[in-house]
Specification:
By secondary structure, the protein is α+β, with helices and mostly antiparallel strands. The chain has helices spanning about 60-75, 90-100, 105-115, 170-175, 185-195, 200-205, 260-275, 290-295, 295-305, 310-320, 390-400, 420-445, 450-455, 465-480, and strands at about 5-15, 20-25, 40, 40-45, 125-130, 140-150, 160-165, 220, 225-230, 240-245, 250-255, 280-285, 310, 325, 330-335, 345-350, 360-365, 370-375, 405-410, 445, 485-490, 490-495. The chain folds into three domains: about 5-205, Nucleoside Triphosphate Pyrophosphohydrolase (Alpha-Beta Complex), CATH 3.90.79.10; about 220-415, Ribonuclease Z/Hydroxyacylglutathione hydrolase-like (Metallo-beta-lactamase, Chain A), CATH 3.60.15; about 435-495, Arc Repressor Mutant, subunit A. About 35% of the residues lie in helices and about 25% in strands. Strands 1, 2, 3, 4, 5, 6 and 7 form a seven-stranded mixed sheet that branches. The protein has a seven-stranded mixed sheet with strand order 8-9-10-11-12-13-14. A five-stranded mixed sheet has the order 15-16-17-18-19, covered by helices on one side. Helix 12 packs across helix 13. The longest helix has 25 residues, at about 420-445. The radius of gyration is 26 Å and the shape is globular.
Amino acid sequence: MPHMTRQTANIILYRQGKGLEVFLVSRSREMRFLGGYLAFAGGKTESGDETLPLDEEVDAGQRTLLGCAVRELFEETGVLALRNSSLSKKDTASLRRELLQGAAAAGFFSTLTEAGASLQQGTLQQALRLVTPGFSRERYTSTFFLMETGEEPEILPGELSGGRWCSPTRTLAEWARGEVLLAPPVIVILRQLAGGLTPAALESLQSSPQTFEGSGLAIPWGPGIELLPFHCPPLPPTLPSSTFLVGAQRFLILDPSPTGEKEQLHLLKAIENRVAAGDQPEAIVLSHHHIDHVGALDAILERWDLPCWGHRRTAELLERSFERELTDNDIIELGDSPDGTAGWQLRCLFTPGHAEGHLAFYDARHKALLAGDLLSTLVSMYVGTPGGHLETYFQSLEKIRALDTRLLYPSHGMPTLEGEALIDKTIKHRRRRIEQVQEVLSQKPGHVLEISRKVYDHKKDSRLRPLYERTTRAALEYLVENGRARRPEEDLYEAC
């Protein structure tokens, strides 16, 4: 089943002085979705948002979104978009405190309606709508409204840790230097507002594609890193695989993942957009050989004459030759970083365990790790035999733990600031699975298939049964290597 999306309303609060400035809030690091990032004020719709008092006729869905925008803007910044309220400043402040303490939207708007307040036509101007791509556990259909204000926002402690007025160009420069984290929609919007809120900029915002899928666009994230998550059968749609475009004027195509024709056309278009902007693809780089990381390799090579780089074992498994064989601590020169500073590099890290030739890539300048399939923010990563090896996998995880990583990019799922916690969670889960296999084995000897079905009896997707069997075999081999089990005959295991 595809992820369901929730409706949110977000407000591009702006003012015009010597130049355009927009107000960005700092999301608390503890927030589950984009915690630690700068974003626009906003949040999820709630029951009662449809009771917003307003001066124009709109449909129920739009009225709910407008109500959400008004409520969230007031709750997060203290700026009230409604006019003609008879409430005193003291009463208005009390109303905000009640919202922050969880008061219902219906009661909030009932109080404002009784005070004669209403949303006047044109106060909030819809700018664009964006749907969170499928690489996130939490997905939203986010509608962004523009609103000009002469008020000074006030951030109170809670879900937000601060806020500030931002020049689009200066803030993008800070982001390019790695000084701030910007939510991807903020990057997209600030780029379109860099020349001011002109009619052309507004038209560009309003014509932005709502969904990533099929748009031909890449998703900007950290400095010099764009990602493109694609559905790659046989993996389910809820587990997309990401291709990364890494670099500035010179860029790498890391793991051309999509196997389907539509998805491949999307990726080709994204690369073409970079080329049309004056950037130059330098090479295709592979983290490993699995099909959801190489599905578009030939499609790209048919369009561009590019070298392919990867580990020697990956080349062997793909039965190809690489123009450059990468190994542990090899350096890939990226040229100038997004802020124009020279000497930007990626360091290759040989990290087998999930796959024999697996590589991860570390950007020391921005403390970013492209982790491939070592970790995922969506699922526990597969480690199965043949091809995978648990003890080696654990060693690779400890290897990347030693890095000074700020932002970790998995191939499956959203990037995370909590890399070390994700490593701990992954190791804990994998060791728990090993103990489950040991527990089943301690009851009586068994073959891989029957042990797998007992350990994974709660898993209903029969398409993944071969993966469960290989994962179980990897756990059994780990137990054998550590003297906790033995294999008296092929495919039969017993506890020691």
